[in-house]
Amino acid sequence: MWSGVPHFILTDIFSHLPLVDIGQCLVVCQNWYNILQDEFHWKNRISNDWGVTSLKQNIPCSWFSEYKRLHCMHSKRSSTPWATLTVHEDEVLHVTMSHCGHYISTSSKDKSVIIWKMSEYSAQSIAMFKRIYFPSWDAVFQSLFNDQDSLLLVSGVAQEPYVGEVMIYSFPKCKHIKTVNCMPYDSFGSWLGNTFFIVGDFDEMSYSAVVTMHSVFDNVSPKYVYTDPNSNPAYPYHCKAFETCNHRSNPNEKFLFYACSQSTVVAHSLAVAVFTGIMDSNSEFERDGLLPFIEDSEDENFNRRAFLKKQKTREPSDYTGTFKNVVELKAAVIGINANENLEKVFVNCRSWLSEDNPSEISMNIQLRIFDFDLNLLRTITKAEAITPSHKFFLIHISSSEWYTISGDEKGKIHIFDSNYNIHVCTLSGHSDVVNCAVISPINPHFICSVSDDHTVMFWDMNRAKRQSKVG
Description:
By secondary structure, this protein is mostly beta strands.
Protein backbone atom coordinates (compact mmCIF):
# COMPACT_ATOMS: atom_id res chain seq x y z
CA MET A 1 0.00 0.00 0.00
CA TRP A 2 2.69 2.48 1.02
CA SER A 3 4.66 1.86 -2.14
CA GLY A 4 1.91 3.53 -4.17
CA VAL A 5 1.73 6.71 -2.08
CA PRO A 6 3.12 9.71 -4.03
CA HIS A 7 6.40 11.18 -2.76
CA PHE A 8 4.95 14.61 -2.01
CA ILE A 9 2.32 13.06 0.31
CA LEU A 10 4.96 11.00 2.15
CA THR A 11 7.15 14.10 2.45
CA ASP A 12 4.29 16.01 4.03
CA ILE A 13 3.54 13.14 6.45
CA PHE A 14 7.19 12.78 7.44
CA SER A 15 7.50 16.52 8.11
CA HIS A 16 4.92 16.18 10.93
CA LEU A 17 6.45 13.12 12.61
CA PRO A 18 8.49 13.49 15.82
CA LEU A 19 12.21 13.46 15.10
CA VAL A 20 12.66 10.23 17.08
CA ASP A 21 10.37 8.43 14.60
CA ILE A 22 12.34 9.68 11.59
CA GLY A 23 15.24 7.38 12.52
CA GLN A 24 12.93 4.37 12.40
CA CYS A 25 11.43 5.45 9.07
CA LEU A 26 14.92 5.63 7.54
CA VAL A 27 15.36 1.85 7.84
CA VAL A 28 11.91 0.82 6.52
CA CYS A 29 12.84 0.77 2.86
CA GLN A 30 15.08 2.40 0.27
CA ASN A 31 12.25 4.60 -1.00
CA TRP A 32 11.57 6.11 2.42
CA TYR A 33 15.28 6.54 3.02
CA ASN A 34 15.66 8.51 -0.21
CA ILE A 35 12.70 10.74 0.63
CA LEU A 36 14.02 11.49 4.10
CA GLN A 37 17.44 12.35 2.70
CA ASP A 38 15.93 14.85 0.29
CA GLU A 39 16.51 18.52 1.08
CA PHE A 40 12.85 19.30 0.45
CA HIS A 41 11.89 17.21 3.49
CA TRP A 42 14.24 19.12 5.78
CA LYS A 43 13.09 22.44 4.32
CA ASN A 44 9.52 21.54 5.30
CA ARG A 45 10.59 20.35 8.73
CA ILE A 46 12.68 23.42 9.59
CA SER A 47 9.80 25.61 8.42
CA ASN A 48 7.28 23.74 10.60
CA ASP A 49 9.49 23.48 13.69
CA TRP A 50 11.37 26.79 13.60
CA GLY A 51 9.54 29.06 11.18
CA VAL A 52 12.65 29.35 8.98
CA THR A 53 11.78 29.82 5.31
CA SER A 54 15.16 30.77 3.79
CA LEU A 55 18.77 29.83 4.54
CA LYS A 56 21.28 32.42 5.73
CA GLN A 57 23.34 33.98 2.98
CA ASN A 58 26.68 34.55 4.68
CA ILE A 59 27.59 30.88 5.32
CA PRO A 60 27.11 27.99 2.83
CA CYS A 61 24.82 25.38 4.36
CA SER A 62 22.04 22.91 3.60
CA TRP A 63 18.56 22.57 5.02
CA PHE A 64 19.58 19.34 6.73
CA SER A 65 22.74 20.80 8.31
CA GLU A 66 20.82 23.83 9.59
CA TYR A 67 18.05 21.68 11.05
CA LYS A 68 20.66 19.49 12.73
CA ARG A 69 22.46 22.54 14.18
CA LEU A 70 19.28 24.11 15.55
CA HIS A 71 18.04 20.81 16.96
CA CYS A 72 21.36 20.06 18.65
CA MET A 73 21.43 23.55 20.15
CA HIS A 74 17.85 23.18 21.37
CA SER A 75 18.77 19.91 23.08
CA LYS A 76 21.40 21.78 25.18
CA ARG A 77 18.67 23.38 27.29
CA SER A 78 19.41 20.85 30.04
CA SER A 79 23.16 21.51 30.00
CA THR A 80 24.96 22.52 33.18
CA PRO A 81 28.00 24.81 33.50
CA TRP A 82 31.31 22.98 33.42
CA ALA A 83 33.00 25.46 35.76
CA THR A 84 31.86 27.96 38.40
CA LEU A 85 34.02 30.71 39.93
CA THR A 86 33.08 31.93 43.41
CA VAL A 87 35.71 34.59 44.14
CA HIS A 88 33.67 37.82 43.96
CA GLU A 89 32.10 38.87 47.27
CA ASP A 90 29.16 40.76 45.78
CA GLU A 91 26.94 40.91 42.69
CA VAL A 92 28.84 40.49 39.41
CA LEU A 93 27.54 43.04 36.93
CA HIS A 94 29.50 42.51 33.73
CA VAL A 95 31.85 40.12 31.92
CA THR A 96 33.90 40.59 28.78
CA MET A 97 36.46 38.52 26.88
CA SER A 98 39.67 39.61 25.22
CA HIS A 99 39.76 39.36 21.44
CA CYS A 100 42.37 36.61 21.66
CA GLY A 101 39.90 34.60 23.75
CA HIS A 102 42.31 33.80 26.60
CA TYR A 103 41.42 36.54 29.11
CA ILE A 104 38.12 37.19 30.85
CA SER A 105 37.37 40.34 32.84
CA THR A 106 34.56 40.40 35.42
CA SER A 107 33.26 43.57 37.11
CA SER A 108 31.47 43.54 40.45
CA LYS A 109 29.80 45.52 43.19
CA ASP A 110 32.64 44.37 45.45
CA LYS A 111 34.59 47.30 43.91
CA SER A 112 36.94 45.14 41.91
CA VAL A 113 37.72 43.89 38.43
CA ILE A 114 39.11 40.37 38.19
CA ILE A 115 40.95 39.28 35.07
CA TRP A 116 41.03 35.52 34.55
CA LYS A 117 43.41 33.68 32.28
CA MET A 118 42.28 30.54 30.53
CA SER A 119 44.69 28.48 28.43
CA GLU A 120 42.11 25.90 27.36
CA TYR A 121 38.47 25.03 27.92
CA SER A 122 38.78 23.18 31.22
CA ALA A 123 38.17 24.14 34.84
CA GLN A 124 41.78 23.38 35.72
CA SER A 125 43.10 25.92 33.19
CA ILE A 126 41.22 28.91 34.70
CA ALA A 127 43.31 31.04 37.06
CA MET A 128 43.09 34.55 38.46
CA PHE A 129 45.53 36.70 36.49
CA LYS A 130 45.02 40.16 38.04
CA ARG A 131 42.65 41.85 40.46
CA ILE A 132 42.19 45.62 40.46
CA TYR A 133 40.45 47.28 43.42
CA PHE A 134 38.61 50.61 43.27
CA PRO A 135 38.13 51.53 46.97
CA SER A 136 36.71 55.00 46.20
CA TRP A 137 34.02 53.60 43.88
CA ASP A 138 30.55 52.47 44.83
CA ALA A 139 30.66 49.71 42.18
CA VAL A 140 32.45 48.65 39.01
CA PHE A 141 29.91 48.49 36.19
CA GLN A 142 31.88 47.15 33.24
CA SER A 143 35.30 46.66 31.65
CA LEU A 144 36.26 46.42 27.97
CA PHE A 145 39.41 45.38 26.11
CA ASN A 146 40.51 47.45 23.12
CA ASP A 147 40.92 45.78 19.72
CA GLN A 148 44.57 44.89 20.33
CA ASP A 149 44.00 43.68 23.92
CA SER A 150 46.68 46.18 24.97
CA LEU A 151 44.38 48.42 27.05
CA LEU A 152 41.46 47.93 29.44
CA LEU A 153 38.64 50.47 29.88
CA VAL A 154 36.88 50.28 33.26
CA SER A 155 33.62 52.15 34.07
CA GLY A 156 32.26 52.71 37.55
CA VAL A 157 30.71 55.27 39.88
CA ALA A 158 32.57 57.21 42.55
CA GLN A 159 31.10 57.46 46.05
CA GLU A 160 31.87 61.15 46.64
CA PRO A 161 30.97 63.02 44.57
CA TYR A 162 28.46 60.59 43.04
CA VAL A 163 29.70 60.79 39.44
CA GLY A 164 30.70 58.25 36.86
CA GLU A 165 34.35 57.60 36.12
CA VAL A 166 36.13 55.83 33.30
CA MET A 167 39.68 54.60 33.92
CA ILE A 168 42.15 53.29 31.35
CA TYR A 169 44.68 50.62 32.28
CA SER A 170 47.51 49.10 30.32
CA PHE A 171 47.30 45.38 29.69
CA PRO A 172 48.62 42.92 30.70
CA LYS A 173 50.48 44.84 33.46
CA CYS A 174 47.34 46.73 34.50
CA LYS A 175 48.96 50.11 35.17
CA HIS A 176 46.68 53.11 35.48
CA ILE A 177 46.97 55.54 32.54
CA LYS A 178 44.04 57.94 32.59
CA THR A 179 40.80 58.87 34.38
CA VAL A 180 37.84 60.68 32.80
CA ASN A 181 34.56 61.71 34.45
CA CYS A 182 31.22 60.98 32.79
CA MET A 183 27.70 62.31 33.33
CA PRO A 184 25.26 60.88 34.12
CA TYR A 185 27.07 58.32 36.21
CA ASP A 186 25.69 55.31 34.31
CA SER A 187 26.62 56.43 30.78
CA PHE A 188 29.87 54.42 30.98
CA GLY A 189 32.43 54.40 28.17
CA SER A 190 33.28 52.49 25.01
CA TRP A 191 36.27 52.09 22.71
CA LEU A 192 36.30 53.81 19.32
CA GLY A 193 39.63 52.27 18.39
CA ASN A 194 42.80 51.07 20.03
CA THR A 195 43.62 54.42 21.68
CA PHE A 196 40.40 56.49 21.40
CA PHE A 197 37.35 56.06 23.60
CA ILE A 198 34.06 57.87 24.20
CA VAL A 199 32.13 58.73 27.35
CA GLY A 200 28.79 60.36 28.02
CA ASP A 201 28.65 63.90 29.38
CA PHE A 202 26.08 66.54 30.20
CA ASP A 203 26.18 70.12 28.93
CA GLU A 204 24.79 72.40 31.63
CA MET A 205 24.50 75.34 29.21
CA SER A 206 22.16 73.58 26.78
CA TYR A 207 20.86 71.16 29.41
CA SER A 208 21.47 68.27 27.04
CA ALA A 209 23.52 65.11 26.76
CA VAL A 210 26.66 65.02 24.66
CA VAL A 211 29.38 62.51 23.84
CA THR A 212 33.05 63.31 24.22
CA MET A 213 35.93 61.51 22.53
CA HIS A 214 39.16 61.07 24.44
CA SER A 215 42.59 59.67 23.71
CA VAL A 216 44.72 57.61 26.06
CA PHE A 217 47.56 59.95 25.06
CA ASP A 218 47.95 63.28 26.82
CA ASN A 219 48.68 65.32 23.70
CA VAL A 220 45.19 64.87 22.20
CA SER A 221 42.47 67.06 23.71
CA PRO A 222 38.96 65.70 24.27
CA LYS A 223 36.34 66.73 21.74
CA TYR A 224 32.56 66.94 21.68
CA VAL A 225 31.58 64.58 18.91
CA TYR A 226 27.92 63.91 19.51
CA THR A 227 25.80 65.19 16.61
CA ASP A 228 25.18 68.03 14.23
CA PRO A 229 22.44 70.16 15.86
CA ASN A 230 21.08 71.07 12.43
CA SER A 231 20.28 67.43 11.68
CA ASN A 232 19.08 66.63 15.21
CA PRO A 233 17.24 69.66 16.58
CA ALA A 234 16.07 67.82 19.70
CA TYR A 235 19.17 67.12 21.76
CA PRO A 236 18.71 64.20 24.15
CA TYR A 237 18.35 64.77 27.85
CA HIS A 238 20.09 61.49 28.62
CA CYS A 239 22.22 59.00 26.69
CA LYS A 240 23.79 55.72 27.80
CA ALA A 241 24.60 52.12 26.86
CA PHE A 242 27.08 52.96 24.12
CA GLU A 243 27.87 50.26 21.57
CA THR A 244 30.42 50.84 18.81
CA CYS A 245 31.33 48.70 15.83
CA ASN A 246 33.15 49.00 12.53
CA HIS A 247 31.56 49.75 9.18
CA ARG A 248 31.94 46.49 7.27
CA SER A 249 32.47 48.14 3.86
CA ASN A 250 34.26 51.31 5.01
CA PRO A 251 37.14 50.87 7.47
CA ASN A 252 37.34 54.64 8.04
CA GLU A 253 33.86 54.76 9.55
CA LYS A 254 32.52 53.52 12.85
CA PHE A 255 28.94 53.23 14.07
CA LEU A 256 27.86 54.40 17.50
CA PHE A 257 24.56 53.00 18.78
CA TYR A 258 23.19 54.34 22.04
CA ALA A 259 20.04 54.67 24.09
CA CYS A 260 18.72 58.17 24.77
CA SER A 261 15.68 60.11 25.96
CA GLN A 262 14.27 63.56 25.35
CA SER A 263 12.74 64.33 28.73
CA THR A 264 13.42 61.60 31.30
CA VAL A 265 16.43 59.92 32.88
CA VAL A 266 15.11 56.61 31.57
CA ALA A 267 16.44 56.01 28.04
CA HIS A 268 13.56 55.06 25.74
CA SER A 269 14.92 55.72 22.21
CA LEU A 270 17.58 54.07 20.08
CA ALA A 271 19.93 56.29 18.08
CA VAL A 272 22.85 55.82 15.72
CA ALA A 273 25.68 58.17 14.77
CA VAL A 274 28.52 57.63 12.30
CA PHE A 275 32.11 58.60 13.03
CA THR A 276 34.47 59.33 10.16
CA GLY A 277 38.20 59.92 10.09
CA ILE A 278 38.85 57.65 13.06
CA MET A 279 42.53 56.78 13.03
CA ASP A 280 44.42 56.00 16.22
CA SER A 281 47.17 58.42 17.08
CA ASN A 282 50.74 57.10 17.18
CA SER A 283 49.63 54.33 14.85
CA GLU A 284 53.23 53.76 13.81
CA PHE A 285 53.97 52.55 17.32
CA GLU A 286 50.97 50.24 17.32
CA ARG A 287 52.06 48.71 14.03
CA ASP A 288 55.54 48.15 15.44
CA GLY A 289 54.12 46.65 18.63
CA LEU A 290 55.61 49.44 20.77
CA LEU A 291 52.42 50.72 22.37
CA PRO A 292 52.37 48.09 25.15
CA PHE A 293 56.03 48.89 25.86
CA ILE A 294 55.36 52.61 26.05
CA GLU A 295 52.48 52.13 28.45
CA ASP A 296 54.12 49.42 30.55
CA SER A 297 57.68 50.70 30.73
CA GLU A 298 59.19 50.07 34.17
CA ASP A 299 62.19 52.31 33.53
CA GLU A 300 62.02 55.08 36.16
CA ASN A 301 63.86 57.43 33.80
CA PHE A 302 61.36 56.84 30.98
CA ASN A 303 59.11 59.89 30.75
CA ARG A 304 56.05 58.59 28.94
CA ARG A 305 54.31 61.97 28.75
CA ALA A 306 57.30 63.81 27.33
CA PHE A 307 57.89 61.02 24.84
CA LEU A 308 54.31 60.96 23.60
CA LYS A 309 54.02 64.72 23.27
CA LYS A 310 56.75 64.62 20.65
CA GLN A 311 54.81 62.21 18.46
CA LYS A 312 52.64 63.25 15.51
CA THR A 313 48.94 63.10 16.19
CA ARG A 314 45.89 64.16 14.26
CA GLU A 315 44.02 67.25 15.36
CA PRO A 316 40.60 66.78 17.00
CA SER A 317 39.02 68.65 14.07
CA ASP A 318 39.93 65.70 11.84
CA TYR A 319 37.23 63.62 13.51
CA THR A 320 33.52 64.04 12.96
CA GLY A 321 30.51 62.39 14.52
CA THR A 322 27.32 62.78 12.53
CA PHE A 323 23.87 61.91 13.74
CA LYS A 324 22.14 59.42 11.44
CA ASN A 325 18.81 58.29 12.88
CA VAL A 326 16.75 57.79 16.05
CA VAL A 327 13.67 55.67 16.73
CA GLU A 328 11.26 55.88 19.62
CA LEU A 329 10.87 52.49 21.35
CA LYS A 330 8.32 53.40 24.05
CA ALA A 331 10.28 51.11 26.32
CA ALA A 332 13.06 51.28 28.88
CA VAL A 333 16.29 50.26 27.11
CA ILE A 334 18.37 47.91 29.27
CA GLY A 335 20.96 46.54 26.83
CA ILE A 336 22.42 47.09 23.35
CA ASN A 337 24.69 44.98 21.14
CA ALA A 338 25.75 45.66 17.54
CA ASN A 339 27.04 42.95 15.20
CA GLU A 340 29.02 44.36 12.28
CA ASN A 341 29.16 41.07 10.34
CA LEU A 342 25.38 40.67 10.34
CA GLU A 343 24.71 44.43 10.35
CA LYS A 344 22.15 43.99 13.11
CA VAL A 345 21.51 45.76 16.40
CA PHE A 346 20.09 43.74 19.30
CA VAL A 347 18.24 45.70 22.01
CA ASN A 348 16.89 44.48 25.35
CA CYS A 349 13.97 46.58 26.54
CA ARG A 350 10.97 46.60 28.85
CA SER A 351 7.91 48.12 27.17
CA TRP A 352 5.81 50.85 28.70
CA LEU A 353 2.50 49.53 29.97
CA SER A 354 0.91 52.70 28.65
CA GLU A 355 2.12 54.35 25.46
CA ASP A 356 2.25 57.79 27.06
CA ASN A 357 3.42 56.82 30.54
CA PRO A 358 7.04 55.65 31.01
CA SER A 359 6.69 55.27 34.79
CA GLU A 360 5.29 51.72 34.58
CA ILE A 361 7.09 49.10 32.49
CA SER A 362 6.44 45.47 31.58
CA MET A 363 7.78 42.48 33.50
CA ASN A 364 8.72 40.90 30.17
CA ILE A 365 12.08 41.63 28.54
CA GLN A 366 11.82 41.99 24.79
CA LEU A 367 14.71 41.39 22.41
CA ARG A 368 14.16 43.80 19.52
CA ILE A 369 16.30 43.28 16.44
CA PHE A 370 17.08 46.17 14.07
CA ASP A 371 19.20 46.65 10.97
CA PHE A 372 21.84 49.39 10.93
CA ASP A 373 19.28 51.90 9.60
CA LEU A 374 17.19 51.12 12.71
CA ASN A 375 14.42 49.34 10.84
CA LEU A 376 12.77 46.82 13.17
CA LEU A 377 13.28 43.25 11.93
CA ARG A 378 11.71 41.24 14.73
CA THR A 379 10.65 41.29 18.38
CA ILE A 380 11.10 38.22 20.58
CA THR A 381 9.70 37.99 24.12
CA LYS A 382 11.31 35.25 26.19
CA ALA A 383 13.25 36.77 29.10
CA GLU A 384 11.50 37.81 32.31
CA ALA A 385 12.02 40.57 34.86
CA ILE A 386 11.04 40.80 38.53
CA THR A 387 12.24 44.28 39.56
CA PRO A 388 9.68 47.09 39.78
CA SER A 389 9.65 49.93 37.26
CA HIS A 390 11.75 52.36 39.33
CA LYS A 391 14.52 49.82 40.06
CA PHE A 392 15.25 48.28 36.66
CA PHE A 393 18.87 47.78 35.57
CA LEU A 394 20.96 46.68 32.60
CA ILE A 395 20.81 43.18 31.14
CA HIS A 396 23.70 43.03 28.66
CA ILE A 397 23.61 41.24 25.29
CA SER A 398 26.35 39.45 23.35
CA SER A 399 26.24 38.20 19.75
CA SER A 400 28.35 36.25 17.29
CA GLU A 401 27.93 35.22 13.69
CA TRP A 402 25.86 32.26 14.91
CA TYR A 403 24.17 33.09 18.20
CA THR A 404 22.91 35.96 20.36
CA ILE A 405 22.65 35.50 24.13
CA SER A 406 21.07 37.42 26.98
CA GLY A 407 20.32 36.77 30.62
CA ASP A 408 17.19 37.64 32.57
CA GLU A 409 16.16 38.40 36.14
CA LYS A 410 15.13 34.82 36.94
CA GLY A 411 18.59 33.30 36.60
CA LYS A 412 18.25 32.10 33.01
CA ILE A 413 20.34 32.52 29.86
CA HIS A 414 18.45 32.77 26.58
CA ILE A 415 20.12 31.77 23.31
CA PHE A 416 18.85 33.08 19.97
CA ASP A 417 19.95 32.32 16.43
CA SER A 418 21.56 35.51 15.08
CA ASN A 419 20.69 34.80 11.45
CA TYR A 420 17.09 33.60 11.72
CA ASN A 421 16.16 35.80 14.72
CA ILE A 422 14.57 32.91 16.62
CA HIS A 423 14.82 31.65 20.20
CA VAL A 424 16.75 28.37 20.33
CA CYS A 425 17.10 27.33 23.96
CA THR A 426 17.30 28.44 27.59
CA LEU A 427 20.06 27.56 30.07
CA SER A 428 19.44 27.37 33.82
CA GLY A 429 22.12 27.36 36.49
CA HIS A 430 22.28 30.71 38.25
CA SER A 431 20.14 31.32 41.32
CA ASP A 432 19.71 35.06 40.77
CA VAL A 433 19.70 37.74 38.05
CA VAL A 434 22.02 37.03 35.10
CA ASN A 435 23.40 40.50 34.39
CA CYS A 436 25.62 39.59 31.48
CA ALA A 437 26.62 36.63 29.31
CA VAL A 438 29.21 36.73 26.54
CA ILE A 439 30.24 34.48 23.67
CA SER A 440 33.90 33.68 23.08
CA PRO A 441 35.31 35.49 20.00
CA ILE A 442 37.20 32.33 19.00
CA ASN A 443 34.66 29.63 19.92
CA PRO A 444 30.96 30.38 19.24
CA HIS A 445 29.88 27.52 21.53
CA PHE A 446 31.72 28.80 24.61
CA ILE A 447 29.74 31.11 26.94
CA CYS A 448 30.63 32.90 30.15
CA SER A 449 27.90 34.36 32.39
CA VAL A 450 27.83 36.45 35.60
CA SER A 451 25.06 36.95 38.12
CA ASP A 452 23.81 38.62 41.27
CA ASP A 453 24.47 35.28 42.96
CA HIS A 454 28.19 36.34 43.00
CA THR A 455 29.24 33.59 40.59
CA VAL A 456 30.91 33.38 37.19
CA MET A 457 29.84 30.35 35.15
CA PHE A 458 31.29 28.76 32.02
CA TRP A 459 29.22 26.84 29.49
CA ASP A 460 30.18 24.81 26.42
CA MET A 461 27.35 24.06 24.00
CA ASN A 462 29.34 21.23 22.41
CA ARG A 463 29.45 19.23 25.60
CA ALA A 464 27.62 18.78 28.88
CA LYS A 465 30.25 18.40 31.55
CA ARG A 466 29.87 17.79 35.21
CA GLN A 467 30.08 21.09 37.08
CA SER A 468 33.42 21.92 38.69
CA LYS A 469 33.85 24.55 41.38
CA VAL A 470 36.85 26.88 41.35
CA GLY A 471 37.81 29.38 44.00
